[in-house]
Write a structure and sequence with these properties.
- The chain has 446 residues and is α/β, with parallel strands linked by helices.
- It contains 18 helices and 12 strands.
- The radius of gyration is 21 Å and the shape is globular.
- One of its GO terms (biological process) is lipid catabolic process.
- GO terms for molecular function: triacylglycerol lipase activity.
């Protein structure tokens, strides 16, 4: 590790500010030594700018450092709380934000610091009330390195996502996930029991920070977060809730089983740029794994990612100049898929788990990041296992588009749960039909 850090110092060149926390530039020589030629370097440089605009060019190292009171703390303990200067934020008017650091559990059950934020609308909606109904929000993939924390982002990694809840009058408690922000541990990307811990204990910590939240709560998540809240819905945490405080779950475009997606639509998963992230996810749990599902070129380029600490866009851009065959190893696929499937099925929802409250899944049929047929198959499996799950499918909608297109439905569904309205108790499949698809706005994929 000391060698790696020393090596990094001579391969990085200045970029942005002295307090930058991710997407460091690397020297041309270092890039070329790791199979990243002119096209690769051009994509890397352009995408670094995008990621830094997203996650902030000034990383708050002081806040994200492990709190002095972490030692001896218990999961759910609040370690740090501080308001975020609204002059830094790019949010809708009337929103108030606090960053938090709290204690969660790592994948192995050990205590670990995690960070996130609490966002509040202008005032409670209910007349003469001082209580905010509260939703735990789980974000989509931001990256796998510490500097890719949504709570450091100027817009808190909102892509027409969690701010929809604020505009509806809900308080939002949003975890970064352990390993993002605070670097005490590696981010166990899509090893969902770890993210379940982070989501659940963020809510416990938030209620210790402020006594303004409703007793009842729900969870909403997108992409990685959609898989995480689905797994939360099956967890013992909410099953042990004797007071029925946990009301249900909304999973938006859930990346529940990524290896199933690869097997169902290999070219789409490769072209999306997510496969290197999936390989790193397995490596973050099993460090001896050498990314052998990737081609020699991509394995070499992943050294650049580790050194430069690339967030989502730049990491995906590392493979943008390669064909599918140039990105993967056929021998690696044959040897690694059984291992990756075993890991996936141990970590993912819809693997025989049972929910205690209703679950709504919202899936775009034009999704280029989450394979819709896999979501449908997992819905069918969950229903067969006796769970109450509604799947709503939106033709033509892509991965992020479906959040907004489906908002009238899923926000109303959240409203109904807080209002105490009962659900059917059965599974259902709803196929939405746009009024005029030919003239409907199709916003570009974000």
């Amino acid at each position: 590790m000391h060698f790696l850090l020393a090596f990094a110092l001579i391969t990085l060149i200045p970029a942005g500010t002295a307090t930058q926390g991710s997407n460091y530039n690397v020297t041309q020589r270092f890039a070329e030594e790791h199979n990243c030629g002119v096209k690769c370097q051009d994509a890397l440089n352009k995408n670094n700018i995008i990621d830094l605009a997203t996650f902030g060019q000034e990383f708050d190292f002081e806040f994200y450092a492990t709190a002095a009171n972490f030692s001896g703390s218990e999961p759910g303990d609040l370690l740090k709380l501080e308001p975020v200067d609204p002059g830094y934020l790019q949010l809708n008017a009337g929103t108030t934000v606090y960053r938090i650091q709290y204690t969660s559990r790592d994948l192995d059950g050990s205590p670990v610091p995690a960070t996130g934020f609490i966002a509040l609308p202008y005032a409670p909606v209910a007349l003469n009330s001082t209580t905010y109904p509260v939703v735990a929000y789980a974000h989509g993939t931001s990256g796998i390195y510490g500097g890719c924390a949504p709570s450091n982002s100027p817009n808190l990694y909102d892509y027409n996502s969690w701010q929809l809840l604020i505009s509806r009058g809900y308080a939002v408690v949003a975890t970064d996930y352990a390993g993002l922000g605070n670097n005490y541990t590696l981010h166990k990307y899509i090893s969902y029991p770890a993210q379940v811990n982070d989501i659940y204990f963020s809510m416990i910590a938030a209620k210790k920070a402020f006594s303004i939240f409703s007793k009842t709560w729900m969870a909403v998540g997108h992409s990685q977060g959609g898989g995480a809240v689905w797994k939360l819905a099956e967890s013992e945490y909410v099953k042990r809730d004797q007071n029925n405080d946990y009301l249900g779950t909304v999973a938006l475009a859930p990346a529940a089983k990524v290896i199933d997606m690869f097997l169902a639509n290999r070219e789409e998963v490769i072209s999306s740029g997510y496969l290197p992230l999936h390989a790193k996810a397995y490596q973050n749990v099993y460090p001896s794994y050498n990314l052998t599902i990737l081609s020699d070129i991509m394995r070499d380029r992943m050294v650049i990612s580790d050194i430069a600490q690339l967030c989502l866009t730049a990491l995906g851009g590392l493979s943008s100049d390669l064909t599918g065959d140039e990105s993967v190893s056929e021998e690696g696929i044959k040897s690694d898929i059984p291992l990756l499937l075993k890991w996936q099925n141990e970590m993912a929802p819809a693997s025989g788990g049972h929910t205690s409250q209703p679950l709504l899944i919202v899936q775009g049929q034009g999704d280029m990041a989450v394979v819709p047929s896999v979501t449908r198959a997992l819905w069918s499996r969950a229903c067969h296992d006796g769970n109450e799950v509604q799947l709503s499918e939106y033709p033509a909608m892509d991965h992020d588009q479906v959040i907004v297109a489906g908002a009238p439905e899923w926000l109303a569904w959240v409203d109904a749960r807080f209002a105490g309205q009962r659900t059917s108790g059965k599974c259902s499949l709803v196929k939405k039909k746009p009024f005029d698809l030919a003239h409907m706005e199709l916003a570009p994929y974000a």
